[in-house]
Amino acid sequence: MNSVTAIHPAAASKFEVTCSSCNLRELCLPAGLCDEDLQRVENLVYARRRVKRGEALYQAGGEFSAVYAIRSGFFKTSLLDNDGREQVTGFFMNGELLGMDGIGGAYHGTAISLEDSEVCILPYALIEDVSRDIPALQRRLHAVLAREIARDHGIMMLLGSMRAEERLATFLLNLSKRFLRRGYSSTEFHLRMTRDEIGSHLGLKLETVSRLFSAFQKEGLIEVQQKHVRILDIAGLERVLAARR
Amino acid sequence: MNSVTAIHPAAASKFEVTCSSCNLRELCLPAGLCDEDLQRVENLVYARRRVKRGEALYQAGGEFSAVYAIRSGFFKTSLLDNDGREQVTGFFMNGELLGMDGIGGAYHGTAISLEDSEVCILPYALIEDVSRDIPALQRRLHAVLAREIARDHGIMMLLGSMRAEERLATFLLNLSKRFLRRGYSSTEFHLRMTRDEIGSHLGLKLETVSRLFSAFQKEGLIEVQQKHVRILDIAGLERVLAARR
DNA sequence: CGCAGGGTTGAGCGCTCTCAATATAAGTGG
DNA sequence: CCACTTATATTGAGAGCGCTCAACCCTGCG
């Protein structure tokens, strides 16, 4: 199921034209681009690359050359500590951009595929050139970078001031929204990451994550069986967040 | 003491030329710009603005129009929760850039001055134009945004996987490095933020922060008296980090 | 001098971690 | 296809780190 269910009806047709080959919605969807510009954006896609489950798309410290748009699949990005401890900085799916932290030098983190995936390669040199010619794209690119910063700030808020159940509820609601945006079910999905990876991302130990899944299930908020999750009560999950004294 | 002690000898003279009026080192220092370009970069500085202690430079949700370079003073940036809880996302000083999270719409967080400060206003529209003409600046701008992302990832690592003492040690070492870079003492400085703000930034309660300061003092790592800090044993602080099992 | 904001310190609790055992699923090779 | 191995999840018991609540102290300022 790689076809995209567009959620911006007005932009749907244009999207089909420009991004049928690759999910560039992040870069071109909301911008008002003329057809000619759209063609140039499409040409940014230098090539595609398959990444098998467990393989790295790029490694921390590796020379930066391109940004990647995920065509299909699922990734985690992470940082490695001196002592080998991992901090998962994010999970990325279908249609999202990856590798922007490397701009201006070397990749800061590592991106690892959690299932067989395919990405579009957007060489930075090309982006530079095209965004110079197309102000709308330049603005768009900056906006994407800014949104990444805002996203990270949200996670900082989560890690800095939420309790364990709030973190997991936030995580599930976020995943749900993103699946919905992409035309998948927002209430039933398959987690591609392990409890350990979820824990690393949320600043919790894997046992805590597992316990919380069980607790949420007991409360009738979700149904879990290993990696399969069904959300039974979205409002209930939101109430977990609202219940902060 | 607003004069900047340049740390890149080669670029020092140029820096003096272009940035004497405002600390634009973030944007122009490492890039290979010709004199003419430097002039254009300097012209980015549309105006200056004084911000009194406690005042907001910009507010979350406010329309984005400019990025700010801190000429003198000290700021915190923070997010406000639905319930009014604050997460401090960073502290910014002399020569650093602020407000990039707003690019592409509205400011995502709030920036509040922790002492009487002065900033240079860099209107985004101008940056857009100039960076289109000067590839080096464009690359530089992207790099600044990417560095912000990398910085946030570092904080995520701190919040997600470090224990309280490691967090405070990291915080102190980071401040120390930044003061050094700007020509101030790296071992003795005045904290402009409260224990509560430090705690919010590090994901700790203010009492915990206070206790840790006392503990570090007892161990001979630092000397603290209220907001005045002297670092006695940098290597010792680094050992706090290394001692992660 | 008195007040207010910020900082320190103590006692006790509770959330999350640690350690450990068991269960379940997913591979792997014969 | 099945026995075996390995990765991943679940669950329990107990400990500890950081939080909560509370009292007190310090400093600057009207």
Structure at a glance:
Two copies of one chain form a homodimer. Chain A has 245 residues and is α+β, with helices and mostly antiparallel strands.
Provide key terms for this protein:
Arc Repressor Mutant, subunit A; six-stranded antiparallel sheet; 2 domains; alpha+beta; disordered N terminus; homodimer; 9 strands; DNA-binding; Jelly Rolls
Could you walk me through the main structural features you see in this protein, from its secondary elements to its overall organization?
2 copies of one chain form a homodimer. The N and C termini of chain A lie far apart (42 Å). Chain A has 245 residues and is of the alpha+beta class. The N terminus of chain A is likely disordered. Helices cover 44% and strands 24% of the residues of chain A. In chain A, the strands form 2 sheets. In chain A, strands 1, 2, 3, 4, 5 and 6 form a 6-stranded antiparallel beta sheet that branches. A 3-stranded antiparallel beta sheet of chain A has the order 7-9-8. Chain A is built from 9 helices and 9 strands. In chain A, helix 1 crosses helix 3 and helix 4 packs across helix 5. Chain A has 2 domains: 149 residues, Sandwich (Jelly Rolls), CATH 2.60.120.10; 81 residues, Winged helix-like DNA-binding domain superfamily/Winged helix DNA-binding domain (Arc Repressor Mutant, subunit A), CATH 1.10.10. Chain A binds a DNA duplex (30 and 30 nucleotides) through helix 8.
